[in-house]
Amino acid sequence: MCGIVGILGQEPVAMRLVEALRRLEYRGYDSAGIAVLEDGRLERVRAPGKLNNLVERLLASPLAATCGIGHTRWATHGAPNETNAHPHFAGPVAIVHNGIIENFKSLREGLLKDGVKTATDTDTEVVAHLIAQRLKAGDAPRQAVQNTLDKLEGAFAFVILFEGEEDLLIGARRGSPLAVGHGDGEMFLGSDAIALAPFTNRVTYLEDGDMAVLTRSSLELYDSQGRHTLRPLQFTQASALLVDKGGHRHFMAKEIAEQPDVVGHTMAEYLDFNAGRVRLPDMPVDLAGLSRINITACGTAYYAGLAAKYWIEQIARLPVEVDVASEFRYREAPLEEGGLSLVISQSGETADTLAALRYCKARGQKVAAVVNVPESTIARESDVVLRTFAGPEIGVASTKAYTCQLTVLAAFSIALARARGKLDDEGEARLVTAMNGLPRNLVRALREDGHIEEVAQKIAHSRDILYLGRGINYPTALEGALKLKEISYIHAEGYAAGELKHGPIALIDEDVPVVVIAPSDTLFDKTVSNMEEVAARGARIVLITDEEGAAHHGRNAFETISVPLADPFLAPILFAIPVQLLAYHAAVFLGTDVDQPRNLAKSVTVE
Length: 607
Ligand code: F6R
Hints:
57% of the residues are buried. It contains 21 helices and 27 strands. The longest helix has 20 residues, at 400-419. The model has no long low-confidence stretch (mean pLDDT 92). It has three domains: 3-240, Aminohydrolase, N-terminal nucleophile (Ntn) domain (Glutamine Phosphoribosylpyrophosphate, subunit 1, domain 1, 4-Layer Sandwich), CATH 3.60.20; 245-436, Glucose-6-phosphate isomerase like protein, domain 1 (Rossmann fold, 3-Layer(aba) Sandwich); 443-594, Glucose-6-phosphate isomerase like protein, domain 1 (Rossmann fold). Helix 4 crosses helix 5 and helix 8 (259-270) packs antiparallel against helix 15. By secondary structure, the protein is of the alpha/beta class. The chain is globular, with a radius of gyration of 24 Å. The strands form five sheets. The chain has an eight-stranded antiparallel beta sheet with strand order 3-2-4-1-10-9-11-15. A seven-stranded antiparallel beta sheet has the order 5-6-7-8-12-13-14. Strands 19-18-20-21-22 form a five-stranded parallel beta sheet, sandwiched between helices.
């Protein structure tokens, strides 16, 4: 995950930028760089690899500048080399960027038509050129940035430095995080408060769509509509801890909000957006030769595995077995030597998942692990690691790790389908393009937060709540129910929508809300019939659907929550947001300990 910083200081800034970047190392990176205004002129120093490589170069030719920007890059568009490392320059503009610009190809074509020459393959350079063009056309820096932001699609955060402007930094965010640090006669910008902790504990977190204009003595904020706005100044604990809540009330809220960013970074590892291709690390087996796959995991990670079963069977036409890890070895599953097992774990330390991994290895299987903690035991004992880039997940209830697991599993399913000849170039490119839009759609799904809070408060006093889903949305129903019960302590169950009349429908009355997860896909009408069955028995329906589903059937529901209309392939990832928010707000309303619910541990290392 890229990390970005900016400093308007009173003393030489180069090593301070590095110090801030060091605190962002946890996000992962493969190159780093800084740009400063040295005697009014833009200078930059960049280096592939670790920050120490950058430090060596800075020591060899020290800089005296007191304002600058810095970046640790996790490659998305273009190889991880010095040329593609940030900051990027265009005329008087230097920029660092975290996130993905989805429409950069068409923007670059426009620039090329205008005779602009680009030096790199990155989406970031395109943004620098667009700002430079606006400056040339006579815009002041703030206006040039605003005009450029209006053209961008995607989820991102920027910090921008301008040649000739010794007392100006502009930051902007949409989806990806950004915070302003207030010093004494100094101002800072950073991906999070952890980066700013060496300099200040007074922080203003930008809200989605905000732009910040900084001088050493002032901060002006503008919202997504370009209106002047104010955001609270907060005192953070980030210097004491290495993690903080980023201005949110709970870690869980922060982690839910981080999903456009971390899903974007996870995608960037596995998808080549330029080529429209998926790239996996070298696999220990020939994917084309597999006759089946088995997946094991616990809890939320198990539901990610269940969604993967639908993806893999639907697009790669390969049979998949999914087991909860705590049961897997007791059924003494026969496993083919040389076959492939997938294990999924945020922590990489879950005892049952580890035992399942060892069971598979003992029977000659190769193991691929989808894990978030790369140093974990499961990662170390696997043959290949398909890492998620969710960053540290502190809330006990898994949220961002889940959507990152799904992102990796979606990419894996596409790669498998390709390897098995079940998907052609065009089909792969279509799915990769659809995934490219995920961060933006996640941002839009998060905007329903206020409405979901109201819905959560209306159902929070229920004793039981049912969640229904069909097809690939059935795992989301299970996950929604798990999220709700673990943090709000409301009894909740997820069912396959068609199973309802085989028993659970007996529970339905006006006191049992039913949450129906139904995107407007090919199964929509069937799920709506199930919804009507329960509505006829007095149940209050909360329909979670997309814009099209809401337009057709929203009126039949007691409440309708809608997410953006997107490729049905992405539904498990997109629909995770409303079920997480519903559980979160119900728990906050009931006053439970959201981040550390009773009886639960983040990492379950006993069987
Ligand atoms: C639920 C949750 C748990 C974990 C499960 C597996 O919100 O967090 O169900 O998903 O304990 O943990 P990991 O993924 O660390 O193996």
